[in-house]
Amino acid sequence: MDLKKRLIFFTRLIRLLAYIYLVVQYILVRDEYNASLIIPVIAGLGAFYILMDRIVLKVPEERFRIASLSLMLFEMFLVSLLIFFTRSNPIVEFDFLYVLPVANVALWFGVKEGLTYAAIASAAYTVTIAISGRFPWPDALGDVLGRYVFFFLAAFIMGYMAEFTERESAEKARRVVELTALSGFATVFDSTLLESKVYANLCNAVSRSVSPDVVLILRYEPGQEQLIIAASDGVSESEANLAIPIDYGMIGTVVRDKNTILLQDTDKEQEYRQLLESQRIRSAIYTPMKWREEVYGVAFAGNQERESFNENDLNLLSALSVQAALAIHNSRLYSDLEDRIGELHAIFEIDKAITSAIDLETVLQQIVQMSIGLLDAKISSIMLIDEESDELVIAAAHGLSESYIGKGPIKVGESIAGRVISEGRPIAVEDIRDDPRHVYSDHARSEGLCSLLSVPLSLKDRVIGVLNIYTDELHAFNPHEINLFTSLASQAAIAIENARLFESLEEIYIEVITAMASAIDARDAYTHGHSHRVTEYAVAIAEEMNLTAAEVDIVRNASILHDVGKIGIKEDILKKPGRLTEEERREMEYHPFIGTKILQSVKLLEPVMPLVYHHHERFDGTGYPDGLRGEEIPLGARIISVADAFESMTSDRPYRKALPIEEAMAEMRYGSGRQFDPRIVAVFMKLAEEGKIELEWSQSRVITLTDRIGRASM
Predict the structure, then answer these.
(1) 3-state DSSP of 583-602
(2) How far apart are CA 626 and CA 231, in angstroms?
(3) Do 585 and 614 lie in a common domain?
(4) Core-most of 124, 474, 536, 705, by most CB within 10 Å?
(5) How many angstroms separate the CA atoms of 126 and 89, rounded?
(6) pLDDT at position 693
């Protein structure tokens, strides 16, 4: 699904919730309105919401903008009519509906257009309330300005999200193309030692990655005066057999200077010479196939249009050329490079392992453990920068004693690791026991450490830490080993950053679901804080039952959202002070299904859904919605059932006052084996008796267990 369709789906969901709210509000106060005026507007909005995205999706791309903007103006008009016709009952607020077209425009077209429509919405709102006399002026000026701020804030946030997502998507797509080409190319060369196959593969990779009109792979042998076309695409058979003099045009410059060249307009380059009579090339890329200081040839990509290549194309072809040069080098020196090929394979495996993990601690441990295997070293450690103190702190280690780990942080610029950060380059030390730059020489001797290789963990714009490799025997690190671990460190830095980003995403995700639960609880003063207290009880039970950290997180999130389905239940049923009728009870029992429907569109919430759906099942099979019994009920749902029931009993409700703690505990014991899992009830009782949870009674007044049930036999 492309970005536009995802945004349309998101706004469709918002409109569905808004329309449900609109209909419910109208039903509640319908006697105060002129139905002949209101019903057509509500029906019009409903039809508009159903047809809008279908119409927009079918509009050709070139007309999408004008069609969308026009529809949003029409939606504002319908909202204005709704507000005008409901002026007799100012308790019912529909002003927020203006934000839907504003958010739509911002999501589809960005911040600028969103702010423009926020201004239009503000103007429409002002005119509407002025005509309807909805608010007394100037007393309501603050309320009106508050709505203006809401419109503009929604436009800015939604527009920023859309623009950020679009940039990220484009960047990710570009990186995927590049990484796929590089990875696929590297894999191909791992399987061949034929030099001719290397040239053919490089030609194919260049053709697929930047789509040029012409590709030439020119082979160069040191001491020769010409380059031979070893592989080509887009040229005739006779031209494919040409030999190019080394001093012809830009070829000699590339071979001599060993640098890449990007030409956006060949007509403006005096040194450029057309390589082919049948092709008039107007933009071109030259990249040397260079390994270390040896040039094996030149890769050429040309197009008949000017300015058809960019810096990304240049970097990609440069990387491909380097890989090709390495493959050629390996093909010529295979017998001497078997060990190095094995090391490169190990790097690839490490990359797969560390990039597949998303937990930061796991990533760090995998890096230090696998780096030891590459060099048969004794100890490896990762030190990360504490940005607040500007110090290096050991974040993970393998083979180090606790005393060495506890030696304290290192200032950036101090010791070996600190210098690596400040200088941004690897440092190899053959004997750290006598090196004056190493501030912990005594610790090194006691640990049996001799040689050290410290390489920076570098991202594109900054260094985030260092990777240290120690040996227990004197070892002179060669350039190959330094390059090897520098590559590993680069991959490790990306994996660490990805793990950090995932942790940030988890934090945002938790904040979002907490906000959703708070919004649900806020609908009723009696249930304010209910989800929070249920979550505290449920998490304590889950941890006491030794559930894994991941399982505890699922219980936590499900507890927060267990009543999310009540957003679809009529408010008069939720707040009814007396016993529910049979019809009302059936509607109330529908809220787990509504909650599951709400959550199913969020992939991160998939593990939570079974717990939300089944938290009203009873252990004896008489619960709802599916009548599951015993172990058929998910464990997390059974835990939430206990926590939810106890919190409900000890809180005021419209139809009764809170039960005293001892009576609630007695009810829990009575329901054990009937309504509740006896094992979970026992765990809850134990936690309460030991004071590991705080029991709350009647509007958040904390009551310790010994205060209320000290006389009860637990």
Answers:
(1) HHHHHHCCHHHHHHHHHCCC
(2) 67
(3) yes
(4) 705
(5) 18
(6) 80
Q: How far apart are CA 122 and CA 103, in angstroms?
A: 13
Tell me how many domains the chain contains.
Answer: 4
Please indicate, yes or no, whether residues 547 and 688 belong to a single structural domain of this protein.
yes
pLDDT higher than threshold 90 for residue 625: yes
Residues 6+ apart with CB under 8 A from 217: 199, 202, 203, 206, 229, 230, 231, 232, 297, 298, 299, 300, 324
Domain that holds residue 420: 339-492
In a domain, 514, yes or no: no
Looking at residue 702, its pLDDT comes to 40
pLDDT in tens, 431-463: 888 777 876 777 677 777 888 888 998 887 788
Segment (H or E) for 607: none
Higher pLDDT, 588 or 65: 588
The C-alpha atoms of residue 125 and residue 144 are separated, in whole angstroms, by 9
Say which CATH number the domain at 608 has: 1.10.3210.10
DSSP single-letter state for residue 187: H
19: which 2 tokens? Answer: 């329309």
Question: Which of 327, 325, 328, 357 lies closest to 344, judged by CA?
Answer: 327
Contact in structure between 331 and 324 (CB atoms under 8 Å): no
Q: Which of 173-187, 206-220, 626-640 bottoms out in mean pLDDT, i.e. has the lowest?
A: 173-187
Could you tell me if 309 and 294 lie in one domain?
A: yes
Judgement on whether residues 147 and 90 belong to the same structural domain of the protein: yes
436 & 378 share domain? yes
Sheet holding 226-233, edge to edge: 243-245, 226-233, 214-219, 294-303, 283-291, 261-263
Asked if the model's pLDDT at residue 374 lies above 70, the reply is yes
Domain end: 333, 350, 384, which one?
Answer: 333
Identify whether residues 326 and 212 lie together within a single domain: yes
Clarify whether residues 262 and 367 are in a common domain.
no
Q: How many whole angstroms separate alpha carbon 642 and alpha carbon 537?
A: 9
Nearest 5 degrees, angle CA 239-CA 244-CA 249? Answer: 115
